[in-house]
Amino acid sequence: QGAEPWRDFNRSKVYMADLESALHYLLRVELATHNTLEGEELKVFKDFVTLVAKLYPGGVSVVKLMETLSDWLLSLPLQRIPYQAVLDLVDNKMRISGVFLGAELRWVGCQSSRPGLRGYPCALWTLFHVLTVQHDATPAALENTGLEAEAAPVLQVMRRYIRTFFGCEQCGRHFEQAAAAGMDRVQQMLWLWNQHNMVNYRLAGSLSDDPLFPKAPWPSPSLCASCHEEKNGVHVWNQDNVLSFLRHHYGVSNLSPKYSL
Ligand code: FAD
C-alpha cells in the first residue's frame, strides 16, 4: 500500500473523521478478534455501544448506527452473539441507509508520519475525552440506561472496554492499575486528562513516539497558556483553567467535520 496523502489539520481542533475511524476500527478490527461475545464481554460491549449512542456529539448517521446497534443488542434474548451478526448489522445498516460509518480509516488529528504509529490508540483517547465532556454537558442523556447510577460512568465503561477488548494488553494493565486506585468520586474530565498525561510522561522518548508528535505534557503552553503556572519556581497546572480548556477543546463547537463523511 502506498503512503496516505498528508491531511492538513489544526492541532487546536478535534476531527470527527478520527472519531468515526476509531469506531470503524473498533467494530471492524478490534472486535473481530472475538468470534463470539458472551457473558462479561457482551455486557461490556453493550454498555460501550449505549454510551456512544447516548453521548456521541454530531454526526447523525453515527448516532443512528449506534442506536440501532444498541436497540438490537438490548432486544436480543441471547446470552451469546456471534461477532459476524454484529458485523452484518453494521454493514447492512450502512448499505440500506447510506453511509453510516466510513468504509475506510481516515486519521486526521491522529495521522502519523510513519505507518504503525498513532491512529487508533490516539483516536480512542480522543473519543473518550469527548465523551467525558459530553457527559458533563448533558448528564441526563444516560438516564434509564443502567449507567446513570455509576459515579463516573464514562470512565467505568472505558475501563471495562480497555480491560476486555483493547489490543494492547500492557496498556490495559496500566490503565486498570490507575483505575483501581480509585475513580469513584473523581471529576471525570480531569481524571482522564491527568491519566493521559501520566501515560505521556511514561512514553516520552520511547519507540512508539512519532517524531512529529513527541509525547509531552498536554495542553502545551501554546494551546493553553493559562493552564500553566509557576509556584516557587516549579511548574504547576492551573486545574480550573485546564478544565475550561478541556470543555472547550473536546466540546461540540470545536469538532471539525473536515475529512469526515
Ligand atoms: P496520544 O497520547 O494518543 O494522544 C492523542 C491526542 O490527545 C494528542 O494528539 C493530543 O491532541 C491529545 N492529548 C494528549 N495528551 C492529552 C491529555 N493529557 N489530555 C487530553 N488530551 C490529550 N502505549 C504504551 O506504549 N504503553 C501504555 O501503557 C499505553 N497505555 C494506553 C492506555 C490507553 C487507555 C490508551 C487509549 C492508549 C495507551 N497507549 C499506551 C497508547 C499511547 O497512549 C498513545 O495513544 C499512542 O502512543 C499514540 O500516541 P499519540 O502521539 O498519537 O498521542
Automatic annotation (TrEMBL):
Molecular function terms, GO-annotated: flavin-dependent sulfhydryl oxidase activity; protein disulfide isomerase activity
Q: Which UniProt keywords apply?
A: Disulfide bond, FAD, Flavoprotein, Glycoprotein, Membrane, Oxidoreductase, Signal, Transmembrane, Transmembrane helix
Per the record, the similarity remark reads:
Belongs to the quiescin-sulfhydryl oxidase (QSOX) family.
- Summary of the function given for this chain in its UniProt record: Catalyzes the oxidation of sulfhydryl groups in peptide and protein thiols to disulfides with the reduction of oxygen to hydrogen peroxide.
Q: What is this protein called?
A: Sulfhydryl oxidase
Q: Which GO terms describe its biological process?
A: protein folding
One GO cellular component term, please give it.
Golgi membrane
- First and last residues shown, out of full length: 284 to 544 of 662
Domain of life of the organism in this record? Eukaryota
Record carries keyword Transcription regulation: no
* Domain named ERV/ALR sulfhydryl oxidase: residues: 113-218
